[in-house]
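seq:
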Amino acid sequence: MEKVRTRFAPSPTGYMHIGNLRTALYAYLFAKHYNGTFVLRIEDTDQKRFVPGATEIIYDTLKQTHLIHDEGPDKDGGYGPYVQSERKSIYKEYAEKLVESGHAYYCFCNNNKEEDENDGEQTFGYNRHCRNLSKEEVEAKLASGAPYVIRQKIPFDQTVTFHDEVYGDITVDTNTLDDQILLKSDGLPTYNFCNVVDDHLMAISHVMRGKEYISSTPKYQLLYNAFGWESPKIIHLSVIMGKNADGTTSKLSKRHGAVAFNQLIEDGYLQEAIINYIALLGWSPKQEREFFTLDELTEIFTADGLVKTDAVFDYKKLDWFNNAYIKNMPHDDFVAYSQKYINDLPDYIKSKWEFASTLAQGRIDKFSDITNLFAFLSNYGDFDLALFENQKNKLDKAQSLEILKDMLPKLEELKEWNVENINAELAKYAEAHEYKIGKVMWPLRIAVTGNVVTPGGSAEMMYLLGKDESLKRIEYCIERLK
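struct:
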């Protein structure tokens, strides 16, 4: 294979959308699989949508996900500048070449403004009024300082064909294409023009982008033909969809939940889990397994694994991935990573977080679940006393009351309040009465938590609550059961 050079060319318009991140991931994996070059290019020609700080978000996201670019604004590989607003003179030069060769023309129409402000995206059908202006008319308007754009001159009654590595050969009738704006009135190019010029000048061998750009690709191909350039290989990626409330799907957006990488991180998803999951949204490893490190993905990633069908972003599936990654974290790493998520926990848990974290690690899907995991301990109230009845342990309310009354003084006498000592007292009592240990633990757990399901047994819950609070709750339940 030829020298592989892929590019990730985001616009600095805000957060890093999951769809953009997947494009970056695939471009990175493809380049690295073939020992090629991964290029970062900042497409900031649409200044109206520019968001201050967005470029830093792009850098931070690539760094966090370990998608390290080989060339970019901060790593000149000889093809710079890599920021499009810094390449303004280059685009003007190439746009004027197209005018000279008859493949583009100056347009002075008053209704250019709306299209111009939308980065060349047409909100109306342009009537090609300026397409056939005489040379003298054009020169007169230019001399008068009339504002203009440069439009692509789409040929009539022809077909244009391009090859997509996923979708095959695609042929389009040129009569269905519009004369798109290439150079806006501010001298900056539209996305549809600058990506063609930059991909050629930066020797990009393979272009990966969403399949929503398939309809624009014939116009790109006509530009390559007009310049006499060979087009890079084109790889269109399936769209990532989100589930709507009514069960239908639509393109993933904010209404489906967190769709920005940084928001997922804030919600407590691990970057390794996010990358692993989105790698499988539109690409098949052709293996039974689903868990892959970035290095393993690099080793097996090829374009023939890309699929045409749209992928659906499933938060339950992401939770499943994240849960597995959390469980497999070294516990010291879990404790360190969880620190920013325990601020809302009550002090009696925060002060024992080293212990409480052992209960949490295997029981959360994401780190933001930590607060809810222990919330029931602080939301203690007048729960249903029927919880003291347990068929499996052959317990009714009267037996539960008896166990609580017997255990209360034994727990009061404990000098050191820890899980080991509490469990030892429970075990002694169970043995003395020839009970299974579960029969003793059940009423104590209900008494101190008011819950059937807890992230640990009765001894763990009593240790977290502390001796005074535990005994207070047991006394309270004895009175209620009486």
